[in-house]
Amino acid sequence: MNLTISGHHLEVTPAIRAYVSEKLERVKRHFDHVINVSVIMQVEKLVHKVEATLHVKGHDFHAHSEDGNMYAAIDLLADKLDRQVVKHKEKTGDVHQGSGGLKHQPSESTADPL
């Protein structure tokens, strides 16, 4: 997973960089196929804004969060991305779960004749 962190009107310190990468590890733990993540942090007056774009094969996820504290905004952002990735994983994984497969269908030769 490639992680790109940039700041507008903000210096990205090693502590913030480590905190963002730690929070985004949870997303990677739920979904292994993350190609890259782009995080942009901004400060406008007293509002800290964080937005991220997460790219997986065939799909992009975007999340945005605002808070008075940068670390709280990063937490909100990680939660939003995690929910989106888990929902996407559930959608792609439930294709043939309901009916089972052909392997699990009762065949006529094994059915009990009445």
Structure characterization notes:
With 114 residues, the protein is α+β, with helices and mostly antiparallel strands. It has a single domain (2-94), classed as Ribosome hibernation promotion factor-like (Double Stranded RNA Binding Domain, 2-Layer Sandwich), CATH 3.30.160. Helices cover 36% and strands 32% of the residues. The chain has helices spanning 14-30, 70-93, and strands at 2-8, 34-44, 47-56, 59-67. Strands 1-2-3-4 form a four-stranded mixed beta sheet, with helices on one face. β3 and β4 (59-67) form a beta hairpin. α1 runs parallel beside α2 (70-93). The mean pLDDT is 85.
Features:
alpha+beta; Double Stranded RNA Binding Domain; 114 residues; four-stranded mixed beta sheet
H/E element sequence: EHEEEH
CATH superfamily: Ribosome hibernation promotion factor-like
User: What do the pLDDT scores average to?
Assistant: 85
What gap, in angstroms, lies between the N and C termini? Answer: 59 Å
CATH topology: Double Stranded RNA Binding Domain
Number of H- or I-type helical stretches: 2
Which structural class should the secondary elements be placed in?
alpha+beta
CATH hierarchy: architecture: 2-Layer Sandwich
Provide the number of structural domains: 1
What is this entry, summarized?
This protein is of the alpha+beta class and 114 residues long. The chain is built from 2 helices and 4 strands; from the N terminus they run E-H-E-E-E-H.
